[in-house]
Write a structure and sequence with these properties.
alpha+beta; seven-stranded mixed beta sheet; 4 helices; 7 strands; elongated; binds zinc ion
Length: 166
C-alpha cells in the first residue's frame, strides 16, 4: 500500500490521488479477505493531510450464533485527518492524526487498518434466521434439531399435557 507521491504532498494545497487495489493490513481482529479497493485523495491542508474518498473491503467474521465463517462487506467513506509522520513512531499511537509515512514513502496501511476496525461490526450473524448452536450439546441447529431440544419442553406445557391425559 505504498505510494511514491511525497513530493506532491509536501507543499500546502498539494494533492495526490491513490487508487487502491491491494492486500490490506494483516493485524486485524477480523482478517481482510481479498483486496482493499477504492480511491483515497490526499490533500495537504496546511495543518495536516486530509484523506477523503471511499474504500471497500471484505472481512471474515464468525456468526455470533452458530460460529460459521461469515464474510462481511464493508463500504467505507473516508474522511480522516492524517499527517506526514512515521507509522512506526510509537509517539504516533497517541496522536489524533493518522501517520502516513513509511520512511520516505506514503503508506496507507495504518489509515486502512483504522478504517476497517472502525467499520467492522462488533458482531454478525450468518442469516437472520440462524438457529445457532444448542446451548446443551453444541449441535448446529441449522443442520438438524438435536435430541435435547425435544427434552427441553417448557414445564407449563408439560403440565398442560398432563391435564390433557397425554
Ligand atoms: Zn449462524
Ligand atoms: Zn442439544
Amino acid at each position: 500500500m505504498q505510494y511514491e507521491i511525497l513530493h506532491a504532498l509536501s507543499k500546502v494545497g498539494g494533492r495526490s490521488v491513490c487508487d487502491l487495489d491491494d492486500e490490506g493490513p494483516t493485524e486485524l481482529d477480523a482478517p481482510i479477505i481479498g483486496h482493499v479497493v477504492g480511491q483515497v485523495v490526499l490533500t495537504n491542508s496546511g495543518s495536516g493531510i486530509a484523506a477523503t474518498g471511499r474504500l471497500r473491503a471484505t472481512v471474515r467474521m464468525e456468526c455470533s450464533r452458530c460460529l460459521r465463517a461469515v464474510d462481511v462487506p464493508l463500504d467505507m467513506a473516508v474522511s480522516e485527518d492524517c499527517a506526514l509522520t512515521q507509522i512506526d513512531d510509537p509517539r504516533q499511537s497517541e496522536a489524533d492524526q493518522i501517520p502516513l509515512l513509511d520512511d520516505t514513502v506514503v503508506d496507507l496501511s495504518e489509515l486502512v487498518r483504522q478504517l476497517v476496525s472502525v467499520h467492522t461490526p462488533p458482531r454478525t450473524v450468518c442469516s437472520a434466521q440462524c438457529r445457532g448452536l444448542c446451548p446443551h450439546c453444541g449441535a448446529d441447529l441449522n443442520v438438524k434439531p438435536c435430541d435435547c431440544s425435544t427434552e427441553q419442553i417448557d414445564p407449563r406445557f408439560a403440565a398442560l399435557r398432563g391435564l390433557m391425559g397425554e
